[in-house]
Design goal:
mainly alpha, TerB-like, Helix Hairpins, 2 domains, 12 helices, 0% strand
């Protein structure tokens, strides 16, 4: 319960960056009580996130300024310039010079955060990779590695990936169906997802939830319309 409350509060205050941190803190409270949530744990969460971002940015053999700026803006929007500057300095002096273990970092998220939080982390990392205009195959490979180590299902990973990398099958993946399925299967999948993600379902939960539901619902509708046009349904 707390993870969604604090995620909403974080979203209202800091938008998407606050949503992830809020969800993390809330899930920690849900799993073990408030006494386990302290500034050191949150800082470890953020330093690990910087580590994954650093590994991802370097994965294709080049360091994109736009990707670096995206990460910088993310933490500035969350903490402000001064605190973000201190965090970057700590990362550069204490973390970046050491050999970073991807498995260790992903295990931190796997065992200490909720599944929903891990999905948001992968979504954020996709945004970082996309910030220079495209996502390379090497970046996709690295994102897939992060996802597997965090114990995220391949279906969820492909669903997130389809929102950033368009292909002939992207719309089918958004509807969580195979490309060779029948027209009736498509209609049923759309009805089920439209019912599940309709914004009216979260009217009582506040603007953050309504906004997220509308965005998801719009993507479902768009995918369905594209498939109908493609098939002449």
């Amino acid at each position: 319960m707390y993870k969604w409350i604090l995620a909403a509060i974080g979203f209202f205050i800091y938008r998407f960056p606050g949503f992830i941190i809020g969800m993390f803190v809330g899930s920690m409270i849900d799993n073990g009580g408030f006494k386990r949530v302290n500034s050191n744990v949150i800082k470890e969460f953020e330093l690990n996130l910087l580590s994954l971002a650093s590994i991802l940015i370097k994965s294709d053999g080049k360091v994109s300024k736009s990707e670096l700026q995206f990460v910088r803006n993310y933490f500035i929007s969350l903490h402000g310039h001064e605190r973000a500057k201190r965090l970057f300095k700590q990362f550069n002096t204490e973390v970046n010079k050491k050999r970073i273990s991807v498995e260790k970092i992903c295990n931190f998220y796997k065992y200490r955060t909720s599944y929903e939080t891990r999905l948001q982390i992968i979504n954020l990392l996709f945004n970082i990779a996309k910030s220079d205009g495209s996502i390379s195959n090497l970046e996709i490979k690295k994102l897939d590695e992060f996802s597997r180590l965090m114990n995220i299902s391949s279906r969820d990973f492909e669903g997130i990936k389809a929102m950033f990398i368009k292909s002939s099958e992207s719309h089918y993946k958004i509807l969580e169906i195979e490309k060779d399925c029948s027209n009736e299967d498509i209609k049923k999948a759309y009805r089920d997802l439209a019912k599940k993600h309709h914004p009216d379902k979260v009217q009582h939960m506040g603007d953050a939830y309504i906004k997220a539901a509308k965005e998801k619902f719009a993507k479902i509708q768009d995918a369905y319309e594209k498939i109908k046009k493609e098939r002449g349904i």
